[in-house]
């Protein structure tokens, strides 16, 4: 497995990872029609723009296929120095330590940019919350996220000082 910075040309494969993961992980959380409407083509252009604006790392398997990703940058709310916007790994590669490796890469990047406090938002019903807790995050924020006509509770895991994260 190799972790590298994403580059222009990775958008389609990043979209695949995110969409397949969303359809697996969030099927009982977000509306079915929203998940059904998620397509690689619709999201490819979005990620092409985000790669220019955010930090993206991708995880490649031994065949060179992108099977995971993490993205982040300055906190969009300006309440914290930085945030992790997304971290996803295809379901068949989860629970193997790859998420922790992606997390380490984005933390190193955030530290290099002199960031200290960090947040990541997730759905309150996300079955993988323990991942953030094991990495030292604590729930300090709550909110709602509108998807279609459904308001879904979200929680923000915060690290007050990412320099204290042992990586």
Care to give the gist of this entry?
This protein is α+β, with helices and mostly antiparallel strands. The chain has helices at residues 11-25, 32-37, 40-53, 98-112, 129-134; strands at residues 2-5, 55-60, 66-74, 82-89, 118-123, 138-147, 150-159.
What is the element layout, followed by pairings?
Elements: E1 2-5, H1 11-25, H2 32-37, H3 40-53, E2 55-60, E3 66-74, E4 82-89, H4 98-112, E5 118-123, H5 129-134, E6 138-147, E7 150-159
Parallel strand pairs: 4-5
Antiparallel strand pairs: 1-2, 2-3, 3-4, 5-7, 6-7
Which tags fit this structure?
alpha+beta; globular; 167 residues; 7 strands; 34% helix
Explain the overall architecture.
The protein is of the alpha+beta class. The chain has a domain at 2-116: Gcn5-related N-acetyltransferase (GNAT) (Aminopeptidase), CATH 3.40.630. Helices cover 34% and strands 32% of the residues. It contains five helices and seven strands, in the order E-H-H-H-E-E-E-H-E-H-E-E. It has helices spanning 11-25, 32-37, 40-53, 98-112, 129-134, and strands spanning 2-5, 55-60, 66-74, 82-89, 118-123, 138-147, 150-159. Strands 1-2-3-4-5-7-6 form a seven-stranded mixed sheet, with helices on both faces. The longest helix is centred in the first third of the chain and has 15 residues, at 11-25. It is globular. The chain starts with a strand and ends in an 8-residue tail after the last strand. 29% of the residues are buried. The model has no long low-confidence stretch (mean pLDDT 90).
């Amino acid at each position: 497995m190799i972790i590298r910075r994403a580059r222009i040309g990775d958008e389609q494969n990043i979209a695949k990872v995110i969409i397949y993961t969303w359809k697996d992980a969030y099927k009982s959380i977000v509306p079915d029609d929203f998940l059904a409407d998620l397509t690689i083509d619709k999201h490819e252009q979005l990620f092409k723009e985000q790669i220019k604006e955010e930090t993206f790392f991708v995880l490649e398997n031994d065949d060179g296929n992108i099977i995971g990703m993490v993205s982040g940058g300055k906190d969009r709310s300006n309440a914290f120095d930085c945030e992790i916007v997304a971290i996803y790994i295809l379901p068949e590669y989860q629970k193997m330590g790859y998420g922790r490796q992606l997390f380490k890469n984005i933390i190193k990047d955030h530290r290099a940019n002199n960031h200290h406090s960090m947040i990541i938002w997730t759905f309150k019903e996300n079955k993988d919350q323990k991942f953030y807790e094991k990495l030292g995050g604590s729930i300090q924020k709550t909110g709602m996220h509108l998807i279609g006509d459904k308001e879904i509770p979200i929680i923000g895991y915060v690290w007050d000082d990412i320099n204290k994260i042992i990586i």
